């Protein structure tokens, strides 16, 4: 059995790295075990055709206080993210237009005031209007349960028409609107409202941040070390690795998505709310097709580069637009359609994505090629893009965040309270470390 540590942290994403740094700063002996051959998890920067492209997390909100303080401490720089959905092309059942002329688009099935709202903005706009959540912790209050209903029901209750809901359901960051908790999305909109729309990313790639955090931990981060079980043995925890190695620790922080925990062979006994969420919390599939545009096809058709469509390719977002020379973009496919594409071989996926892109945007024919396919649904150490609670799961999530799970604590974006994404992951890591420190102090 491997030599013992005060604490073993499983997962070197932002949550696990933050937990380990907080513990190390308090003088605790900590070992981080990471399954992949790199740190960073759902932050993944790729070397693109003419610079870095983000396959995972892109946008750093200006209120991401923990993250920005790590960026400064590491001597890294941030730069503004180039794209936004403020201007975008809209393609509905073959009818092509822009967000600005959407009201006059013959494919627009809506009437009245709704007709002027581009489909990509229908849900966020309806949720932002009179959001019942005023503060970042309001989602955890018992009164909030009344909004923990299918998002479709909530949208109808605030006056969105059936046609508008059906249209918005065709592409977005969710699996389906009906299968998503309205409270989860109200929480997301409340969180986003605390940051300005202008986001940033790290010069040289967002992955430089987790790398710099791992460097602070020196030799205490082990990559290629997949954990398959955590068991209790007397006063100790035993962490089992895929190659059969066993490492003992006084405490364990499990900072991996619940989706990947489903494959573990053992965890100590947990409160019912936690084990149910481990089994059931959904993580939508999301597959990104990174593209290089050899010529600026958007200048030929006069449409914005960003695009929201009802076609199989759903959304196109630019990453870097060069005045001359190649530009980088990515097609983002989420949910059921992503799972269908994930099931095909790479050649079929390329044919479908390029075929659909050419169909909805003929100027792109012959102008783009796919440089990389990144499937978060098929990524074994992620099991999907992010936690997206079902209707009725939010009270359990609040209880799971509060639950004291003893010598095994959990962290990760799925257990964030006040912020989402990368900042939420850091917040959860800090909380898990604080709980372990409290136990070590009282032990
Ligand atoms: C496409 C995409 C776009 C995004 N865009 C944004 C954005 O713009 N802004 C934003 O703030 N957030 C964004 N996010 C979300 C953000 O990436 C995550 O919220 C955050 O990085 C999660 O950190 P984490 O530490 O909780 O989990 P992860 O980053 O998933 O870290 C978990 C780690 O655990 C490891 N692991 C898993 N299983 C095991 C095991 N058995 N043994 C050992 N190690 C294991 C994994 O390899 C991984 O390194 C995006 C995510 C995706 C996928």
From TrEMBL:
Look up the signal peptide feature and give its range: none
The protein's required cofactor(s) are namely: FAD
Residues in Amine oxidase domain copies: 14-437
State the SUPFAM superfamilies in the record. Answer: FAD-linked reductases, C-terminal domain, FAD/NAD(P)-binding domain
Q: Does the keyword Endoplasmic reticulum apply?
A: no
Which keywords label this protein?
Oxidoreductase
**To which protein family does this belong?**
Belongs to the flavin monoamine oxidase family.
PANTHER family in UniProt: AMINE OXIDASE (PTHR43563), AMINE OXIDASE [FLAVIN-CONTAINING] B (PTHR43563:SF1)
Q: What is this protein called?
A: Flavin monoamine oxidase family protein
